[in-house]
C-alpha cells in the first residue's frame, strides 16, 4: 500500500519496502553500459510522439501551437543537468502515477522475481513499456530526476521528482508546452571515462548515433563552439573569441530500409553499406525484403564480395543489427543467422519483437526463428540465382565462402539438403569446378555411385594409385581438396539417390563383367591365397587385412581404409590437430598383375624363401605408406632392406657376392 502525505500541495508517495531494493537492482545490476539510459529515454520520447501523432489523426485540435514533432537535448555544464524533451502525448496526473510509478504498484514483488529469473549478466534493460523500468535506468547517472509533463488539452501539467530512494514527490504545475521534459541532475563521473561524460556534447552525439540514429523523429541539440572574433574588415582579432550556438540534428530520421526499395538508387545502398559496415568493396548482392504475417519485419541484407576478417579463424564477424521501432536493440544479433552465413551483413527492424526485461534477450524464440528462416531462405536464393545466371561471379564467391557452406553441413547435417546444390568441387574431367547436379547429369548409363577422392591438392590425388582403374574406365572423380571436405563426407552420403563413394575406401569393384580382360577367375584368386595369408600374418600388427585389389592397374600396392570409421586422410588431419587417439583401418591391397606381386607369390610357395619374404612384405607396406605421404616406421631398416634387395637381385643374376650383413 502507498502512503500519501500532503505537503503544500505536493504529495510525497512512499514506495513499498521492496522498491528500494528493486531500484538498486536496476541501477547496479541490470545494465552493462550506462549510456543505455539515453536509448531508453529517447525511445520513450519517440513512443510519446507516435501516440500523439495517432491521436491527432482523429482529433486535430490536440496540435495546439506545436507542429514540429521532435526530441530536444539540452546540456547545462554549470548546473550539471541533462534534459530530454519531447512535444508528444504527455501525461496527466493519474497517468504519471500509472506509468512512472508502475513498479510501485502491488505487483512489484512479482516483478522483482521476474527480473531475477530473466537477468543476464551482460545484458541491457528492456523497453519502459514492459514494466516502466527503462525510465529508472537514468538513476545510474543521475542523483535526482525531475519530470515535467502535460497532456494535450489539459489545463495543468504535472511535476514528478525523485532521488531514487524510497519515495517520490508529485504535484500539479503550470506548463505551457505540451509533452514531457525530463531533467537529470547528473552524478560526478570518472574523468578518465570519456564515454561516461554525459555533459560533453560530442559524447552525447556519439551515443545517439550508436543507439538512436534511425529514430523516426529528429533529435536536436545545441552545439556550442568558439570562433575567432573578427573586425569590420573581417580580420581576426588577436586573443578574442566568440561563442557560437548551432542547433544540430543528431540522427537520420528515416533509415534506408524503411523506404520503398523502388525509390532507392543502388548508389544509396552502396553509400549506406560502406558507412554502416566499413567495407569499401562493393557487395556482391543486395536484398531489401519485408516479412508479414506472424511477425512483421524489414531486412536489408548485403552479401559481401570478400570474406570478412576472422571468418575462418574462429573470430566470427558480428551478426545482424537488430532494431525495434528504429531503436537499436542489439548490435550483434548472431541468433538471426546460422553460423555458416555469418559473413553476411544485415540489418533487421521489427516492431513486433517481444522483449523481456533484458532487451538483448528475446522473450519468444519463435519470433526470432521466423525471421532467421526468412533471412536464410532469401540469402540461399540469392546464391542460387548467381550460380545459375553468373557462373564466373559465383565461382569467385565460392572461393571466398565455399568453406563456410561446407562447414555448415558438417556443423549441422540438417542443412545438407539446403546447401548441397550450392557446393562446387574440382573434377578429374575438367579444369573447371562442378556441382553435384552437373556431375550426375554426365554419369554414364550403369554408373550407380558418385566417385570422389580426398587429398591435399589436385596434383597429389591425380597421382594416387587408387585412381588408376577409375581413370581407365573413364569415370569422373570429384576431388575433395579442402580439409573440411573430409569431415563433409560424414554427412554428405548421397545425392539424388546416388551414394558418394571414395575411391580410397572399402571395396571398389569397377569391373565390367561384359569385358573379358576385366574378369578375375576364381582359380587366379585362389593362386594368391597363400601369399595373402602369409602377408596377413607378417603384417598383422600394421594392417587389418591384405587383399587383391580391383582398383590398381600399374602400381604394385596401395593402402585403403574401411568403409566405416576414420579414413587415412582423416587420421592425418586429426594428427595435425594433435588429436592422435583415433586411427584409420589400414587395408593393404595388391595388384596381382604387377611383377613384384607375381614374384612374391612365386617365392611364397618355397618355404626356404619365407624369411626373405618378410622383408619384402615390409618393403611393400612401406611403399604403400610413402605413396600416402605417410612416414615409414623405421627409415634405417627401410634403407637397409632396399640395399639388400639390390644385392639379392645381383646375386640372382650371377653377379659377385658382396652381401650386406643383416
What does this structure look like?
The protein is of the alpha+beta class and 662 residues long. A ten-stranded mixed sheet has the order 1-2-7-6-5-8-4-3-9-10, covered by helices on one side. Helix 2 packs across helix 7. The longest helix is centred in the middle third of the chain and has 25 residues, at 365-389. Residues 1-8, 104-111, 119-132, 356-360, 513-521 and 657-662 have low confidence and may be disordered.
From the alpha-carbon coordinates, what is the Rg to the nearest angstrom?
Answer: 38 Å
Largest sheet: 10 strands, mixed
Distance between the termini: 101 Å
Helical residues, percent: 25-40%
The shape, in one word, is elongated
Overall average pLDDT: 83
Tell me the total number of β-strands.
24
User: What share of residues are in beta strands?
Assistant: 15-25%
Reading side by side through the largest sheet, how are the strands ordered?
Answer: 1-2-7-6-5-8-4-3-9-10
Keywords:
single chain; 662 residues; alpha+beta; ten-stranded mixed sheet; 21 helices; 24 strands; 35% helix; disordered N terminus; disordered C terminus
Task: Summarize the structure in short.
With 662 residues, this protein is α+β, with helices and mostly antiparallel strands.
Helix and strand arrangement:
Layout: E1 4-7, E2 10-14, H1 17-30, H2 36-58, E3 71-76, E4 81-86, H3 93-99, H4 108-118, H5 128-131, H6 133-136, E5 142-150, E6 157-162, E7 167-173, E8 179-186, H7 201-212, E9 219-230, E10 236-249, H8 266-277, E11 285-291, E12 297-303, E13 321-324, E14 327-330, E15 345-349, H9 365-389, H10 391-411, H11 416-419, E16 425-427, E17 430-434, H12 436-442, E18 450-454, H13 458-462, H14 468-473, E19 477-480, H15 483-488, E20 494-495, E21 498-502, H16 522-527, H17 529-538, E22 545-548, E23 557-560, H18 568-576, E24 587-590, H19 595-604, H20 610-627, H21 635-652
Parallel strand pairs: 3-9, 13-15, 18-19, 18-21, 22-24
Antiparallel strand pairs: 1-2, 2-7, 3-4, 4-8, 5-6, 5-8, 6-7, 9-10, 11-12, 12-15, 13-14, 16-17, 16-19, 20-21, 23-24
Amino acid at each position: 500500500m502507498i502512503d500519501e502525505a500532503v505537503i503544500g500541495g505536493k504529495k510525497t508517495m512512499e514506495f513499498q519496502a521492496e522498491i528500494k531494493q528493486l531500484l538498486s537492482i536496476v541501477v547496479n545490476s541490470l545494465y552493462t553500459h550506462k549510456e543505455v539510459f539515453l536509448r531508453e529515454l529517447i525511445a520513450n520520447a519517440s513512443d510519446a510522439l507516435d501516440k500523439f501523432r495517432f491521436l491527432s489523426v482523429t482529433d486535430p485540435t490536440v496540435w495546439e501551437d506545436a507542429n514540429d514533432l521532435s526530441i530536444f537535448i539540452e546540456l547545462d555544464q554549470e548546473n550539471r543537468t541533462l534534459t530530454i524533451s519531447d512535444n508528444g502525448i504527455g501525461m496527466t496526473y493519474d497517468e504519471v502515477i500509472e506509468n512512472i510509478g508502475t513498479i510501485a504498484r502491488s505487483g512489484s514483488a512479482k516483478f522483482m522475481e521476474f527480473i531475477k529469473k530473466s537477468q543476464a549478466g551482460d545484458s541491457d534493460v528492456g523497453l519502459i513499456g514492459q514494466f516502466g523500468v527503462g525510465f529508472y535506468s537514468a538513476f545510474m547517472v543521475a542523483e535526482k530526476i525531475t519530470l515535467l509533463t502535460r497532456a494535450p488539452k489539459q489545463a495543468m501539467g504535472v511535476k514528478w521528482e525523485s532521488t531514487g530512494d524510497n519515495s517520490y514527490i508529485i504535484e500539479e504545475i503550470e506548463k505551457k508546452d505540451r509533452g514531457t521534459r525530463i531533467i537529470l541532475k547528473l552524478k560526478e563521473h570518472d574523468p578518465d571515462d570519456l564515454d561516461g561524460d554525459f555533459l560533453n556534447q560530442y559524447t552525447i552525439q556519439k551515443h545517439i548515433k550508436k543507439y538512436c540514429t534511425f529514430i523516426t523523429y529528429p533529435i536536436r541539440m545545441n552545439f556550442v563552439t568558439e570562433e575567432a572574433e573578427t573586425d569590420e574588415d573581417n580580420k581576426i582579432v588577436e586573443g578574442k573569441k566568440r561563442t557560437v550556438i548551432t542547433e544540430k540534428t543528431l540522427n537520420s530520421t528515416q533509415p534506408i530500409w524503411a523506404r520503398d526499395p523502388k525509390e532507392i538508387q543502388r548508389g544509396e545502398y552502396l553509400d549506406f553499406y560502406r558507412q554502416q559496415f566499413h567495407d569499401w568493396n562493393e557487395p556482391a548482392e543486395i536484398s531489401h525484403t519485408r516479412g508479414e504475417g506472424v511477425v512483421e519485419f524489414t531486412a536489408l541484407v548485403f552479401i559481401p564480395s570478400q570474406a570478412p576478417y576472422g571468418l575462418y579463424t574462429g573470430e566470427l564477424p558480428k551478426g545482424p543489427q537488430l532494431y525495434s521501432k528504429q531503436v537499436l536493440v542489439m548490435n550483434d544479433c548472431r541468433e538471426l543467422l546460422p553460423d555458416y552465413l555469418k559473413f553476411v551483413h544485415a540489418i533487421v527492424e521489427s516492431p513486433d519483437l517481444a522483449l523481456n526485461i533484458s532487451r538483448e534477450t528475446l522473450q519468444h524464440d519463435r519470433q526470432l526463428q521466423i525471421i532467421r528462416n526468412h533471412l536464410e531462405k532469401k540469402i540461399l536464393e540469392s546464391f542460387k540465382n548467381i550460380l545459375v545466371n553468373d557462373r564466373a561471379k559465383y565461382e569467385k564467391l565460392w572461393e571466398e565462402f565455399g568453406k563456410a557452406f561446407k562447414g555448415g553441413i558438417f556443423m549441422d547435417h540438417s542443412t545438407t539438403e539446403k546447401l548441397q546444390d550450392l557446393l562446387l568441387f574440382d573434377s578429374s574431367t575438367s579444369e573447371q569446378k562442378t556441382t553435384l547436379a552437373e556431375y550426375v547429369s554426365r554419369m554414364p548409363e550403369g554408373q550407380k555411385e558418385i566417385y570422389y577422392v580426398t587429398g591435399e591438392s589436385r596434383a597429389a590425388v591425380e597421382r594416387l594409385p587408387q585412381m588408376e582403374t577409375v581413370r581407365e574406365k573413364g569415370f569422373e572423380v570429384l576431388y575433395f581438396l579442402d580439409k573440411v571436405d573430409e569431415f563433409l563426407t560424414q554427412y554428405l552420403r548421397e545425392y539424388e539417390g546416388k551414394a558418394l563413394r571414395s575411391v580410397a575406401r572399402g571395396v571398389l569393384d569397377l569391373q565390367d563383367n561384359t569385358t573379358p580382360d576385366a574378369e578375375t577367375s576364381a582359380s587366379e584368386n585362389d593362386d594368391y591365397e597363400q601369399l595373402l595369408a602369409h602377408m596377413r600374418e607378417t603384417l598383422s600388427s600394421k594392417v587389418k587385412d591384405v587383399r587383391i585389389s580391383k582398383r590398381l592397374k600399374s602400381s604394385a600396392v596401395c593402402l585403403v581404409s574401411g568403409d566405416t570409421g576414420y579414413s587415412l586422410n582423416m587420421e592425418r588431419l586429426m594428427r595435425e590437430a594433435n588429436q592422435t587417439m583415433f586411427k584409420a583401418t589400414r587395408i593393404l591391397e595388391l595388384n596381382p598383375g604387377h611383377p613384384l606381386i607375381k614374384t612374391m607369390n612365386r617365392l611364397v610357395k618355397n618355404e626356404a624363401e619365407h624369411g626373405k619374404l618378410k622383408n619384402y612384405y615390409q618393403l611393400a607396406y612401406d611403399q604403400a605408406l610413402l605413396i600416402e605421404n605417410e612416414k615409414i616406421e623405421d627409415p634405417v631398416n627401410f634403407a637397409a632392406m632396399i640395399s639388400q634387395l639390390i644385392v639379392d637381385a645381383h646375386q640372382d643374376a650371377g653377379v659377385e657376392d658382396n652381401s650386406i650383413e643383416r
